[in-house]
Amino acid sequence: MRNHIQKSIAMRLVRVGGVMALMGALTACQTLEAMSGGAAADVKPIPVRSARASMIAPIVETRETITATGYAVVSIQNHKTPAQKRLLAIRASKLDAYRALTEQVYGQHLDATTTVADMTVMSDTFRTRVEGVIYGAVLVSITPAGDDTYETTLSLDARVVDDLRALYLGQLASNIR
């Protein structure tokens, strides 16, 4: 399974590399035409984003910050005292917010299996996981939501998101080699 994932990632990187080469060639053509003073100099050049931005921009819309909210129920926390249950719920809601933030930065790995027999779906299972590193998140708020739930909101600056994704893509590329 891991080998299949690595091959899939390698294929994606090859496609991205081809797109980056094409973008570089187009940028060079525009620069040469503008420098030659030909008729093409009157044409405004098409802005070309950096390679890193071109890979990430289609995935997530451009924003100044991203935010994520996590929730946790107080009554299901495993402790005897109400105060400790409340503290555990606050901590759990914060971890849930970090998970939601990680999903926005790195995406989710989804594994789905459907079994069909006699043209009828017999079973349908989904498993998801998210993995990544988050740093620089700002705690926006921790507030009670109703009588038995806490809500935590975190935000992350777009520049930090770009850094995190660049580190992740670099790690993926080094694992393929």
Describe the protein in words.
With 177 residues, the protein is an alpha+beta fold. Helix content is 48%, strand content 25%. The chain contains four helices and five strands. The protein has helices spanning 2-36, 51-56, 82-106, 158-176, and strands spanning 65-73, 109-117, 120-129, 138-144, 149-157. The strands form two sheets. Strands 1-5-4 form a three-stranded antiparallel β-sheet. A two-stranded antiparallel sheet has the order 2-3. Helix 1 (2-36) crosses helix 4 (158-176). The protein is flat, with a radius of gyration of 23 Å. The two termini are 17 Å apart. The model is unreliable at 16-41 and 43-49 (pLDDT under 50).
Itemize the secondary structure elements and their pairings.
Layout: H1 2-36, H2 51-56, E1 65-73, H3 82-106, E2 109-117, E3 120-129, E4 138-144, E5 149-157, H4 158-176
Antiparallel strand pairs: 1-5, 2-3, 4-5
